[in-house]
Amino acid sequence: MCDADDVRRLALALPHVEEIDSDGFDFRVGGKGFVWSYPERLPGKPRVIRMDVAVLFVGDEAEKQALLLGEPDLFFTTPGYDGLPLVMLRLERVSLERLAELITDAWRMRAPDEVEAAYRPAQG
């Protein structure tokens, strides 16, 4: 079981990450977002920032569908995210190890090549 503090700690442990001022959490590398809190929009209601749900960059539609179909208890999407390489992750259902893997993968896909390449050898 994870929460927003776990997301923050894991994201900020990665090189060249900046946290953007927001009502929730919002992390970027090289000016590109890779994980942020879910801005839920329900018809007729104001937007609500969900700190219990993380939006993750996943790279492409194939990866998105693999996560949604393979682990529906963890991942979901909404029509507003159709066609975008993003999934929503239920933080209270994910292990810390899996969350670290997902955040690192999202960071790798968004980090500039030279930043990501410099990180690889440090992984051992």
Architecture overview:
- With 124 residues, the protein is α+β, with helices and mostly antiparallel strands.
- It has 4 helices and 6 strands; from the N terminus they run H-E-E-E-E-H-E-E-H-H.
- The chain has a 6-stranded antiparallel β-sheet with strand order 1-2-3-4-6-5.
- Strand 1 and strand 2 (26-29) form a beta hairpin.
- The radius of gyration is 14 Å and the shape is globular.
- The relative contact order is 0.21.
Brief summary of the model shown:
It holds the Pfam family YjbR. The protein is an alpha+beta fold and 124 residues long. 35% of the residues lie in helices and 27% in strands.
Features:
MmcQ/YjbR family DNA-binding protein; alpha+beta; 27% strand; 6 strands; 6-stranded antiparallel sheet; 4 helices; 124 residues
| Radius of gyration, CA atoms, in whole angstroms | 14 Å
- Span between N and C termini? 27 Å
- Report the uncertain regions: none
Helix content: 25-40%
Major pleated sheet: 6 strands, antiparallel
User: Order of strands in the sheet with the most strands?
Assistant: 1-2-3-4-6-5
Q: SS-based structural class?
A: alpha+beta
- DSSP helical segment count: 4
| Strand-residue proportion | 25-35%
Order of helix and strand elements from N to C terminus = HEEEEHEEHH
- Please, what is the average pLDDT? 93
Q: How many β-strands, per DSSP?
A: 6
Number of domains: 1
